[in-house]
Design a protein that fits this description.
The complex is a heterodimer. Chain A has 2 domains: 3-227, Rossmann fold; 239-354, no CATH class. Chain A contains 8 helices and 21 strands. Chain A has helices at 41-49, 91-101, 106-119, 135-147, 165-182, 193-199, 217-222, 227-232; strands at residues 3-12, 15-25, 30-34, 56-61, 64-65, 76-79, 153-157, 185-190, 202-207, 210-215, 239-246, 249-252, 258-260, 273-278, 283-285, 293-303, 306-313, 316-321, 333-338, 343-347, 353-354. In chain A, the strands form 4 sheets. Chain A has a 6-stranded mixed beta sheet, sandwiched between helices. A 6-stranded antiparallel beta sheet of chain A has the order 13-12-11-14-20-21, with no helix packed on it. The two termini of chain A are 36 Å apart. By secondary structure, chain B is mainly α. Chain B has 12 helices and no strands. The chains are: A alpha+beta, B mainly alpha. The A-B interface holds A 49-51, 71-73, 76, 78, 80, 82, 84, 86-89, 97-98, 101-102, 129, 149 and B 199, 201-202, 204-211, 215, 219-220, 223-224, 226, 306.
Chain lengths: 355, 306
Amino acid sequence: MLVEMRSLTKHFGITQAVNDFTVTLPDGELVSLLGPSGCGKSTVLNMLAGILKPTSGQVLFDGEDVTGLPPERRGIGLVFQNYALYPHMTVLNNISFPLEIQKVPRAERMARAKAMADMVHVGNLLNRRPRELSGGQQQRVAIARALVKNPQLLLLDEPLSNLDARLRLEMREEIRRIQQKTQVTTVFVTHDQEEAMSISDHIALMKDGYLQQYDTPQELYNDPDNQFVADFLGSPPINHLTGTLLGSVFTLTDNSASFPLPLPAEGVPEGKELILAIRAESAEAAGQGEAHFTAQVKQVYTMGKEELAYLMVGTQEMRAYIDLDQGITPGITLPIRLKPRGVFLFDQVTGVRYQ
Amino acid sequence: MSKDALRYRREKALERRSRVWSALEPVAYLLPFMVSIIVFTVYPFFNVVFMSFREGFDLLTNTDNGIGLGNYAFVLSNRDFINALTNTGIYVAVVVPVSAALAIVLANLLNRKVRGMAIFQTAYFLPMVTSAMAVGLAWRYIFLRDFGVLNQVLGWFGVDKINWLQRYPWSLYALIIFGIWSNLPFTIILILSGLQNIDETYYTAARVDGARSTRIFFRITVPLLAPTIGLVLTINTISASKVFSELFALFNGPGIGGSLFTVVYYIYEQFAKQKHAWAAAAAMILFVLIFIATMVQQYIQRKWTY
């Protein structure tokens, strides 16, 4: 189902939870609503579900305005953060309850619930009660219950946040598998950028009730619209070198270093306070004559397959994945070359990107 | 002896004393409570058990004609006691389920966030803070044959005047109505606390799936409330089995011609008539009955609760 949100706005009293949120979810895609807590992503989800009524704006399902429809008439499946499985019902009854409400005949109800349970791999647990299940199994049952009535839209509200790290990885792949199998348009709310990056077709990144950027994970990462987007995505977080531009020379804020700016900067006002943002994987040890600037190696860490170096550029610190085979040790001065990808220039005050 | 040696001995003594004190301290704190429990509950309980088997027992001289089941034989064949058992049984069988059912419905209404709810809550909890005797007097006026409000209201529906206070089965019904009414507040409080423990998301989940309020009530609220309902039934069965003061409040005694004896009133009367051993035997029978009822309830509840 094609889901359109047009200028969705929600105010709680004087709090503006969501402002002018316009996003179109393509049919059959998994779209993440991503952002720090309090950014309004759950509010958007609840407006999609019909649990909250928007202050203004419209929700359209396949072109039909459903803004005024209550949740039960929207044909949605909803998975709650705490799963909300009925503790007094068995797995089978939990999954078949939505069909019971729709007065589906008992035999058909049981057959459909069982098929759904098999699909999410809990077919062997049908007579257990929720408290006899692990977190991951409860999650699977919750998804089965949301999907059993063949919803046109599946909404997942931070579905992985109650699971431990290992299970979270497993379940996020499971959600992807189930979504691709059923081809149901899915909205996935999360505050975990890694989760969103790995699972989504598109990500809507939000902050303070405003949409920051709506794009594919790769585009979001490689071509951020503003500093918040660049900061929010990626681990370790993107490096910041603050300074100003004079001519084509970038000078760090306390004049501790200066070097020609390694990217085109047309239209950047001279003397403007800027941030040169560099992803950790975008800096490398430079060969002869390739260096953009030099840095002091402060510390090196081995993190499994990667090796992370802490560098000082003037008085400012940055982290970079650098090939340590070249005998790089703390204390040496290293010429640094920046790759064309993953280097951005932002306005320090407004966060606007210059390119 | 040197100064140091003296100080050493003094400190040792202090240390020893503090060790004794730390062992005794909790006992000292518990003692008043334990003494009162032993004197007023444990000792009387075992004394009653013993007394119920002492035939021809005299409390003043503390003598008897031997140990046996004579007291039980008398009580169980006594017309007043059988009457009391019947009345108490009917009272429990009606008051406990009806007040639980009413409390569930009312608690659900009270659990909503509606303006002016505080007024309703106060109204429902009023019986709990008013004296049973004062309330009983008010109910006497309600139940009056000729001028009572209840008969007035029933009259609008064409019901003939009922002699609530002075005709036997009607007096039992009056007692039951009064019992339900005075049981409600406490029951509602328990049910309300149970309701507030039910996570709101269960309701949201059911509503998103299209469930209407009756289905939500019977398929979600009531099952999730089962532990609380079980607790309420147990507590109310025990307290309703001991119905006693209500008789004074409404009838100044066991009703016309002793027709409205309850078990505890029977015990009280035997005691007042200096028939302590009969009272003890009746008390034991009540104890065993309540015990059995509670066990049965616990058993059912274990099967019922999720």
